[in-house]
């Protein structure tokens, strides 16, 4: 069992970096909030190893934020009192030493006390990723993940500020292969996200760090570990 309750004040950081631990009992401590944001986070989780090759758990957290902002109509300083809820359930299974399977359910709810135009007022996001990873003793590995996403919320339109409801659901597939160099000198990887170039509408809470690629995206990388 894990549990945590902590308070964080987002101060000005050089290049957004700090030496402090980024997590407390597995719960993120730092987010890309506006400078001056005062937040509390509470979380609890249960992790359980059922057998030698099956592992699972559940996790839930609540976060309250007071972020400095300005009322654009009056110019007065205000605090946007926001609430964030996050839940997660997961199950990992390794039926063979070469194969690892996983399934998850992820839930996120956002309630903004003072949303601006172009932002969400209330937002509910559901994700169900299911994946398989293959590892061969030769150093070759492959991964395949399918993710069902459903999101609904209330949004304020740009310019007009009119509140509208919207939702969308879609299924994404990501895939990749990699090769581990002999003597663990590094990796070479090839991959693709949104393999079938799915078209969808999705609101990113942190638009500077998107979690979903809106279009098919191919990538390659080399990681070297020099002794």
Can you give a write-up of this model?
This protein has one domain (2-224). It has a ten-stranded antiparallel beta sheet with strand order 1-4-5-6-7-8-9-10-11-12, with no helix packed on it. Strands 2-3 form a two-stranded antiparallel sheet. The chain is 0% helix and 62% strand. It is built from no helices and twelve strands. With 227 residues, the chain is mostly beta strands. It has strands spanning 2-9, 23-24, 27-28, 38-49, 54-70, 77-96, 99-111, 120-135, 140-156, 163-180, 186-193, 217-224. A hairpin with a 6-residue loop joins β5 (54-70) and β6 (77-96).
In short:
The chain has no helices and 12 strands.
Uncertain stretches of 5 or more adjacent residues? none
Helix content: under 10%
Give the total of beta strands.
12
The proportion of residues in beta strands is: over 45%
Q: What order do the strands of the largest sheet run in, or round the barrel if closed?
A: 1-4-5-6-7-8-9-10-11-12
Q: For the terminal residues, how far apart are their CA atoms?
A: 39 Å
Main sheet overview: 10 strands, antiparallel
Q: Looking at the structure, what is the overall shape?
A: globular
Radius of gyration: 21 Å
What number is the mean pLDDT? 89
Helix and strand element order: EEEEEEEEEEEE
- Assign the structural class, choosing from mainly alpha, mainly beta, alpha/beta, alpha+beta, or little secondary structure: mainly beta
Keywords for this structure?
227 residues, mainly beta, ten-stranded antiparallel sheet, two-stranded antiparallel ribbon
